[in-house]
C-alpha cells in the first residue's frame, strides 16, 4: 500500500532567469544555472539540478565524483564526452549516467554553445559552481575569460569531487 504521508518537499517552479547563475572560468567558460536543489525544494532525496553552457572550443576538464551519481542530458550543440579514455558524441538528446568514481570530461567541438542539463545525487555541484564562478544576470555580456580560483583544489575537495587516479 502506498505511503499516504504528505511529503515535506515543496512544489517549486523556477524560470531560467530566476535561477542563480554563474559565469564559469577557463577552461569551460560559458555559464551555469543552478535551477533546483534540496535546500530549495525540501526534497527527501538530496539532489541538485541545473544547466551548463560551454563555449565553442572550450571544455569541462576531466573529473570524477567519488560520492555522487550524475546524469547529463544534452539540450543543444555538439560535443564529445570522454569517459575513461573512450570518446562518445554529445548532441541534442544524448543522455549519460555516471556512477560514482567514473572519470569524465566534456568538450565542445561545435561552432555554437554546448548546453546540457545536469542532475547530481546527492547535491553539492551547485555550491562548487557558485564558489569558482562569478554571479551572472541574464542581460549582461559575457566577461573576458578568467582563471579558476587559486584554491580550486580545496573547493573541489570540499564539494563533490574526488581525486583522479594517478593525480592524488
From TrEMBL:
<keyword id="KW-0479">Metal-binding</keyword>
<dbReference type="Pfam" id="PF07883">
    <property type="entry name" value="Cupin_2"/>
</dbReference>
<feature type="domain" description="Cupin type-2">
    <location>
        <begin position="51"/>
        <end position="119"/>
    </location>
</feature>
<dbReference type="InterPro" id="IPR014710">
    <property type="entry name" value="RmlC-like_jellyroll"/>
</dbReference>
<dbReference type="InterPro" id="IPR013096">
    <property type="entry name" value="Cupin_2"/>
</dbReference>
<protein>
    <submittedName>
        <fullName>Cupin domain-containing protein</fullName>
    </submittedName>
</protein>
<dbReference type="InterPro" id="IPR011051">
    <property type="entry name" value="RmlC_Cupin_sf"/>
</dbReference>
<dbReference type="InterPro" id="IPR051610">
    <property type="entry name" value="GPI/OXD"/>
</dbReference>
<dbReference type="GO" id="GO:0046872">
    <property type="term" value="F:metal ion binding"/>
</dbReference>
Amino acid at each position: 500500500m502506498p505511503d499516504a504521508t504528505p511529503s515535506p518537499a515543496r512544489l517549486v517552479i523556477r524560470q531560467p532567469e530566476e535561477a542563480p547563475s554563474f559565469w564559469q572560468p577557463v577552461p569551460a567558460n560559458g555559464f551555469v544555472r543552478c535551477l533546483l536543489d534540496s535546500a530549495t525544494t525540501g526534497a527527501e532525496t538530496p539532489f541538485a539540478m541545473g544547466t551548463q553552457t560551454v563555449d565553442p572550443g572550450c571544455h569541462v576538464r576531466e573529473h570524477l565524483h567519488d560520492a555522487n551519481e550524475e546524469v547529463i542530458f544534452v539540450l543543444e550543440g555538439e560535443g564529445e564526452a570522454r569517459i575513461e579514455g573512450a570518446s562518445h558524441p554529445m548532441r541534442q538528446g544524448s543522455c549519460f549516467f555516471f556512477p560514482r568514481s567514473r572519470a569524465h570530461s566534456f568538450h565542445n567541438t561545435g561552432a555554437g554553445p554546448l548546453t546540457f542539463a545536469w542532475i547530481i545525487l546527492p547535491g553539492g555541484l551547485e555550491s562548487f559552481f557558485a564558489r569558482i564562478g562569478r554571479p551572472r544576470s541574464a542581460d549582461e555580456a559575457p566577461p573576458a575569460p578568467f582563471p579558476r580560483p587559486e584554491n580550486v583544489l580545496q573547493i573541489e575537495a570540499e564539494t563533490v569531487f574526488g581525486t583522479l587516479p594517478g593525480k592524488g
